[in-house]
Amino acid sequence: MLCVFLIASTVYAGYLYPEQIHLSWTENEGEMRAMWVTYLPVSSVISYRPILCNSIANPTEWTNIQGSSISFNEGQTITRIQYIHTGVITGLNENCYYEYSVGDGLFWSDIYVFSGRTPDYSAPFNTKEVEMIIIGDWGTGHNGVYTKHLLSQESKIRDFDGILHVGDFAYDLHNENGRVGDRWLNIIEPIATSFAYMTLPGNHEGHKNFTHYKTRFNMPLNEANNGTSYFYSFDMGPAHFIMMNTEVYFDDSNVTAITQMNWLLDDLNKANNNRELRPWLIVLSHHPLYCSVNWELPLLQSNGDCGPDAVMLQKNLDDVFYKNGVDLYFQAHVHNYEREAAIYKNLTVPSEYDGPNIHIGPKAPIYITNGNAGNYEGHNDPTSPTPQDWAQFWSNDYGYGRLIVYNNTHLYYEHYSSPDVSCMDHVWVIKTQNRYNS
Ligand SMILES: [Fe+2]
């Protein structure tokens, strides 16, 4: 009888403890949002305090803030209700780290730590070096485990500012009545509890109007995205980052391509008026505009991702990116790593100097495919034995990358092999003017 009581108590407590905890920045400077899940409707509380501040010698008292929650039926064939909690810590000091715990006031998570540095919208501006992990097409299953191990280790020994996930999560968030999404959010929890995990949607999130994506992730609001987390931008360090949604060109449910384009053009215009302060303009989205598979060869004509789909996206975005002086476009969807030269209208645009791992004074966007974090699909688009002329490096290995924007002139990107725990490729991009075609 005692055993039955203990087992019942354990199951009950399991429904109350927070899980799937992840952080994200909001549309406001100095804010960090935490989201987490319970399986019973309980209160939403974040307890936090600053530590390691330049100006605060000792940790201060803990502060409790009240969040909110929604019930979410994550099931498709059966009803599975989970409670998704959200709370936002405000007034962060970029010189502090913060320790925090989430819970209901009785059942708490572990204590985690994040940096108080967030996107930056008001003077005095912080344009010091910014480092981002960039990752795409990461799901459950053994192919993604190497990436989990390497990124978990790296996040504990080598600091960075945030994580940018370029679409396709879990494979898929809604599968097995939402259990796959639950499992994957728990896989990333050791990382996403310490760093803002910023997302944009891929095709694997499209199920039922992106319901799981929009419900499980809350990204910065803007006047056009209608709270969908589909597209947004932020300033950090010497760079302006744009996270956009190429799914609108394949499935325009909720937000149309025209809505996003109007927002994008306005956002690019604002960014271009600010390039003395933040000269780097970096765009990320899921579908590729340029990848090295030579789809014109008859053998590979079936490759739609780098073929007809990429050509369609070029028609929509190539001029927009080039004419607005976009420096880099990070793309995914294709499950490998590819780095291209500066490209416009399907042709290499020579820089002032181009080497195998360096571009000085590039004059068009540089394209990098980052879709090899690993998932059960494996490598759906093997790299071509006859890549395009503008292809610089390509690999079928699994991994992810680190972007370092050092200052107004120097940017560095390196891409890792997760199984080999090694750096497979790197590139320097050096500006000789704030904007190449101004
Ligand atoms: Fe995809």
Overview of this protein structure:
- Mean pLDDT is 92; it is low at 1-9.
- The chain has 2 domains: 20-115, Purple acid phosphatase-like, N-terminal (Immunoglobulin-like, Sandwich); 130-430, Purple Acid Phosphatase, chain A, domain 2, CATH 3.60.21.
- It has 438 residues and is of the alpha/beta class.
- The chain contains 7 helices and 26 strands.
- Strands 13-11-9-24-25-26-21-20 form an 8-stranded mixed β-sheet, with no helix packed on it.
- The protein has helices at 2-16, 145-157, 179-187, 189-192, 207-216, 257-272, 308-323, and strands at 19-25, 32-38, 45-51, 63-66, 68-73, 81-89, 97-103, 112-115, 130-135, 138-139, 162-165, 169-170, 196-199, 232-236, 239-243, 280-284, 328-331, 337-344, 347-348, 353-355, 358-360, 366-370, 391-395, 399-405, 410-417, 422-430.
- It starts with a helix and ends in an 8-residue tail after the last strand.
- The structure holds fe (ii) ion.
- Keywords: Glycoprotein, Hydrolase, Signal.
- Residues 18-114 form the Purple acid phosphatase N-terminal domain.
- Belongs to the metallophosphoesterase superfamily. Purple acid phosphatase family.
- Its EC number is 3.1.3.2.
- InterPro entries: Calcineurin-like_PHP, Metallo-depent_PP-like, MPP_PAP, PAPs_C, PAPs_N, Purple_acid_Pase-like_N.
CATH architecture of the largest domain, by name, is 4-Layer Sandwich
CATH topology tier name of the largest domain: Purple Acid Phosphatase, chain A, domain 2
Give the DSSP E fraction (strand runs of 2 or more residues).
25-35%
Low-confidence stretches: 1-9
Biggest sheet strand line-up: 13-11-9-24-25-26-21-20
Task: Please compute the radius of gyration using only Cα atoms.
Answer: 22 Å
Compute the number of structural domains: 2
Structural class: alpha/beta
Describe the global form.
Answer: globular
Number of strands: 26
Mean pLDDT level: 92
Corresponding CATH superfamily of the largest domain: Metallo-dependent phosphatases
Question: How many helical stretches?
Answer: 7
N- to C-terminal distance? 78 Å
| Attached small molecules | fe (ii) ion
